[in-house]
From TrEMBL:
GO biological process: aerobic respiration
Single annotated GO MF: NADH dehydrogenase activity
Protein known as: NADH-quinone oxidoreductase subunit I
Residue ranges annotated for the 4Fe-4S ferredoxin-type domain, each copy included: 35-64, 75-104
Organism: Methanosarcina acetivorans
Length: 136
């Protein structure tokens, strides 16, 4: 039995590795993959349907500036991705198509503190760097 396993291991040494180191080597994604949400602030009307649809109550509607450096504020979704299922119901129910699904699943999402998992409207609209967060 031991010789059989050694023979199998030696036989498979020249083959290409099938495992990858995550997050250093990202996996290829399908077109239907649902990653971190993207918010288009110009389309969002702040209706809250996304928050009402979320099965985990991971979405809150908060006031945020309409553009970087602007003093005007409107209502936008804020997503706690620590509780998000990435089910896509919020994206499907958005009447204006303001929310969409991105391809990010490791960049900026692997954090130790729960407060860093809170995706503010600025982070969802990619107005701030997701890796650095709000400190920028």
């Amino acid at each position: 039995m031991v010789l059989k396993n050694i023979k199998y291991a030696v036989k498979n040494i020249p083959k290409k590795r099938v495992t990858r180191l995550c997050p250093e080597v990202e996996s290829p994604l399908s077109d239907r993959f649902r990653g971190l949400q993207i918010l288009d602030k110009s389309k969002c009307i702040g209706c809250g349907i996304c928050a009402n649809t979320c099965p985990n109550n991971a979405i809150k509607i908060v006031k945020a500036p309409i553009a970087p450096g602007s003093s005007k504020q409107r209502w936008f979704p804020e997503i706690d991705i620590g509780h998000c299922l990435f089910c896509g119901l919020c994206i499907d129910q958005c009447p204006k198509g303001a929310l969409s699904s991105g391809k990010e699943y490791t960049k900026g999402m692997v954090k130790w503190a729960h407060k860093d998992l809170l995706m503010t409207p600025e982070k969802l609209a990619r107005e701030v760097d997701i890796k650095e967060g709000d400190e920028k």
